[in-house]
Design goal:
heterodimer; A: alpha+beta; B: alpha/beta; Rossmann fold
Amino acid sequence: MLPRLGFESRVALRFLREGRMQTLLIVVGVAAGVAVVAYISALISGLQRNTLEKTLGAQAHVTLSAPEDAVLPPAPPASGTAGLLQTQPRAQRPRSIVNWQALLPVLEGQPGVVAVSPMVSGAGLALRGEAARSIALVGVELERYDRIVGLRSKVVQGQARLGPGEAVLGRELAGDLGVRVGDRVAIVVAGPQGNVTDTARVTALVDLGVRELNRRTLYLPLRAAQSLVGLPGGATNLDLKLADVWAADPLAVELARRYPYKVESWQQLNAQLVSALNAQSVSTTVIRAVVMIVVVLGIASVLVVSVVQKQREIGILRAMGATRAQVLRIFLLQGAVVGAVGSALGVLLAVLLIWAFTSFVRGSDGLPLFAITLAPGLALRIALIATACGVLAAVAPARRAAALDPAQAIRL
Amino acid sequence: MNTEARPLVELDGVRKRYNVGRPNEAEVLHGISLVLREREFAALIGPSGSGKSTLLNILGLLETMSEGSYRLQGEEVGGLDDAGLTLKRRAALGFVFQFHHLLPAFSALENVTLPALMRDGQVSTAQREHAREVLAAVGLAAAMDKRPGELSGGMQQRVAIARALVMRPPLVLADEPTGNLDRASSDEVFALMRRMHAELGTSFLIVTHDARLAERCDRIVELVDGRIERDGPLPSVSSSSSPPAARGSFHR
């Protein structure tokens, strides 16, 4: 049971009110600290969310593909003889994942996996009139693939359909070839038995968020791509989408251990981005910790001064019958009140800063750079931590106050 | 001296040493034995450095003795820890100090209700009403909501007396209660303590330098160099012993 704090809270509030200037300064200090922490947290999480969305928008979280062709190592040379050490690496022909149809439901049953989509990818040329562009040929089932990258939401023109003889093009590729929705393009893929050719009608143009991808990507139905690349019934990759993007790495490791396939997570494919995000998170944590330490030290120093100033009053209270525990609680409460009031003001200030950021900082297109919001849960957590910091900061001064010898304190 | 009254304070062979075990170790009280009874009104006098303050602090449970026995209301307090001493102090003692020692952030009435707030965590209507009565009894009916800073020294000391008496402790310890006041205020404050003693039957032990006031107490204990030099009523004391008349309106 909590002891009733009527006496302690009354004296604590009165002490704070009495030291008007000190109290005001430290509350403003706490508010500034909390505002910085809340604002930075919201900004960085908004920035990271935005970066991840852009990156993962056109990418699967985990990709499974057939293992690469490798030269088998020769038997170790018999003693006394020399072996040939140089080997020519194998050319990587398109290869299908063995048995992918059976694998599909197994992967879908993995916990955390939201969607699985088979894909055939290859290199080719898109032709129209005299224009020829090299393309990344991507054969997918639209329904499944849409669940991985949300292709339909990236359509800028037309309506995405991938029926037999239909194609979806990146916006820049369509521009280069001079095709519009409804036009036909010819596709050529070089195979071991000569060129394979097909034509398709363009149903939609998409913006994948990266210009280079828009310039190269051409989506075909899975079946059409299979025959173009020469893998009838095959799939070169299986794309996985996960509920939690950060679960990709452990899942990739787990799958690679279990199946004889090459498994890559988006983190492995974007190592630089991931390390940048990590560096960002680490520096945010450092900033938060430093600000919190400064806040704690600020509160503590003000309370230490207050204990010295109030020695005589503490002595009187003790002579009147206040216990050490009561004196301790009076100062702990002061820390808590400063922390709580400061963090309430700080959260308000952060909301104001965020509003200013979203209202006044805009990209070159006049739209807000990215959405940042202060989640109520985060705000509450920061406020609670700041209040706890206030109590923590008050521990040393409060113990000092409680330990004062009343006879000496009164004489001062 | 009223010998059939029950003893409130019984000191036996109390010694106090400071800086024990260090080269500057010093004993300031050399075996004090003293009995204070209910309804006593006594002065504690002595030159500076005679150990008056130390003795008062020990009596007030603000300091612990090094040796000896101290029974307060029949209970030995020598073995109590800090929490036990605090609760005993709360129940049995009131304090009046030289420099008023009110809490400046609280009004006169709030200062007087603080002991109840401290004990119960809240102030009941009855307790607040009682505090008003005590303040009225010390002549401060009009100044209850003023802060100590807005009151004269004599008025502040009257608030302090009201605060010391509000929980009706059997003993009030006063450390130079008039030491900081002019003569008129001194007399006024002293007369108030005498009146409260008469009305409530509270025992007072007053440390004072003022021989004029000491002579008006029923008993004088004189301390010299940490020993009791003299203890007893002044031969010249005439009719000042308290008549059990005129009970205060707030005395139940």
